[in-house]
Amino acid sequence: MADKNPLQKCFLFIILSINLMVLQAETGQISQKKTYVVHMDKSAMPLPYTNHLQWYSSKIDSVTGPKSQEEEEGNRILYTYQTAFHGLAARLSEEEAERLEEEAGVVSVIPETRYELHTTRSPTFLGLERQESERVLAERVTDHDVVVGVLDTGIWPESESFNDTGMSPVPSTWRGACETGKRFLRRNCNRKIVGARVFYKGYEAATGKIDEEVEYRSPRDKDGHGTHTAATVAGSPVRGANLFGFAYGTARGMAPRARVAAYKVCWVGGCFSSDILSAVDQAVADGVQVLSISLGGGISTYSRDSLAIATFGAMEMGVFVSCSAGNGGPDPISLTNVSPWITTVGASTMDRDFPATMKLGTKRIFKGVSLYKGRTALSRNKQYPLVYLGRNASSPDPTSFCLDGSLDRHNVAGKIVICDRGVTPRVQKGQVVKRAGGIGMVLTNTATNGEELVADSHLLPAVAVGEKEGKLIKQYAMTSKKATATLEILGTRIGIKPSPVVAAFSSRGPNFLSLEILKPDLLAPGVNILAAWSGDMAPSSLSSDPRRVKFNILSGTSMSCPHVSGVAALIRSRHPDWSPAAIKSALMTTAYVHDNTFKPLTDASGAAPSSPYDHGAGHINPLKAIDPGLIYDIGPQDYFDFLCTQELSPSQLKVFTKHSNRSCKHSLAGNNPGNLNYPAISALFPENTHVKSMTLRRTVTNVGPHIASYKVSVSPFKGASVTVQPKTLNFTRKHQKLSYTVTFRTKLRLKRPEFGGLLWKSATHRVRSPVIITWLPPL
């Protein structure tokens, strides 16, 4: 393949420059010790050593020299990795890390990365509670055999969502453990929570000892995030679940008969890569079939992305990995977790909402959302003074964000205060208003969030409104001498249209590491999701909030990721022999791209139609995904051959060769990464304008009826003609593989990518792939 285009080179240069600046800032003095993840070539261990730990220790000794009394060897090596990949995590100075990288058998030395969390109605919205689903999802013993590993903040085992009534004994193949610690005993595990482990060595090495007055040095979840994601994946049904009466109904996970293993890797100060990698390594060794990872840490090249390396090893072992796309939207190129062997999940809304209204003194009414339920309520028949402290209704400024300490009691006491969204948590703004004597808050979106509304359990009467409404409300407050308003909270409504809609915060493509690989892969519900919660944390997550709840409503790609993990567990229970790529293919090719008004999916940040860079292949459709008809399968060697097209040096490729016999077999035609057998099809025309045609190849496997005939159709494109050969695929047996080619011929080089779809349709199945054509700017 030709060299990467200038845009990609520029992007990679920026990544490396930022990483370098961060590294320099964190290192300070050259002798200061940091945690490094060291990837080792297992096959290079010399004969005198009887185990890898001995060898690793000698390598560390060779670069560190004599130790001081307080510097025991055990303090240098934090973890060793043996399953998903081979290596160790160690505390080293920059000089020592540089020396270690020169040692024989050392593949790479990567600095520790800090990751962040990407923070009832959904089963029904996804069709998992309809009568049809009872037939398709009739309970089987194999449902209980799938274990989903959740890497997060731990788990609150007393939640009713983890009740194991009716579950069969834990499978004998399960090798996990229930680690004990503060307020977490062995009896806290059961047939639902089959494993619970903690990983904190990297965190403590970076931040100091864990303060057990603030958080538990055990699998118990004080934060709530991990409990929420685990319950979303596989929570048992709980009737009457709600948050202050909102979203009342039965809460259940996507795969309520699957089991959960909690791997606590996130703490008050963040989630550190050495801990995350140890958890992935251990989870694979324990025997999980699905990994759910709702966190991210920016983007790095494949060979410098420790999570990409670890999940490659998990994929080799047959583990499906689902990761959140990130909450960096609506900015383009804001994705994390973009490796093709990871299923990258964006967030969407559902058809449930929590409406509220704001009525101005002019009698004009604006619609918003809220989850406020408290003793204090504003009368719908009375008007209250309204104030906005910003200087411009169209653009926020430091005085408009209601930051801590920014409000003068004299200006806000007894008034409804308008606060712009951003900078600080939404609920915290209401706390600031309340402390200053305000009686209510209107939270107005800025251009970043557009018309997307996220409901919160505020500490005082509050309503969130969109950007357009917000501008009008602020204009009224600034121009009227006696501006007044009142707020009314209306409860729960279902059947909202249009839905789903792409969440404004959901991170966007394109995937600049590899434009030939579409990311995100798909969408799942991630806005206003009800699930189990920690008994130690307020629903607002504010320490000053005394309220405690059993269920909470959260939004983020952290919430959409476990939806996909749970559906993957359902698919795995029906098709235990399917590869991770086959499961991803089933999810992507059955996804839908129209909302409940039968119009194309739209983007909450602007109400315009969304593109595959926003929604990937579309929104998950679990019942269809269990029976997709055809799948696009990809094996570990295929993924490795994809990496061979990414201009990685032999030593960089070696970090992915856990098995020493892995080498480039150049199976992708023309050494073109676009020929990876991905369920999405992306044609990338180079800068050379003489290249006017391109042919990509795909192979599908029949997993539907033994005898089936599929005919193809392709949406029209302005910039190119698209020809598929053959136009019909005739299958005569199950698991039969047939190939086809897609030829793109440029008619007009467009400045922007063009999007469409390719559909294979039989009498019983529809198998859709998004198609993207991109013309790189001429040199």
Considering the chains and any ligands shown, give keywords for the structure.
25% strand, hydrolase, Rossmann fold, 19 helices, serine protease, 4 domains, globular, Glucose Oxidase, domain 1, seven-stranded mixed β-sheet, alpha/beta, 779 residues, Alpha-Beta Plaits, protease
Q: Please tally the β strands and state the result.
A: 37
- Termini, distance in Å? 17 Å
Overall 3D shape: globular
The CATH topology annotation of the largest domain reads as: Rossmann fold
> What is the gyration radius calculated from CA atoms?
27 Å
Q: In CATH, what is the homologous superfamily of the largest domain?
A: Peptidase S8/S53 domain
Low-confidence stretches: 6-30, 130-138
Pfam families: fn3_6 (PF17766), Inhibitor_I9 (PF05922), PA (PF02225), Peptidase_S8 (PF00082)
Keywords: Glycoprotein, Hydrolase, Protease, Secreted, Serine protease, Signal
Subcellular location: Secreted
Domain Inhibitor I9: 35-118
Write structural notes for this entry.
This protein has 779 residues and is α/β, with parallel strands linked by helices. The chain folds into 4 domains: 34-110, Alpha-Beta Plaits (2-Layer Sandwich), CATH 3.30.70; 121-348 and 499-625, Rossmann fold; 355-491, 3-Layer(bba) Sandwich (Glucose Oxidase, domain 1), CATH 3.50.30; 629-775, Immunoglobulin-like, CATH 2.60.40.2310. It contains 19 helices and 37 strands. Strand 2 (77-81) and strand 3 (87-92) form a beta hairpin. The longest helix is centred in the N-terminal third of the chain and has 22 residues, at 6-27. The protein starts with 5 loop residues before the first helix and ends with a strand. The model is unreliable at 6-30 and 130-138 (pLDDT under 50).
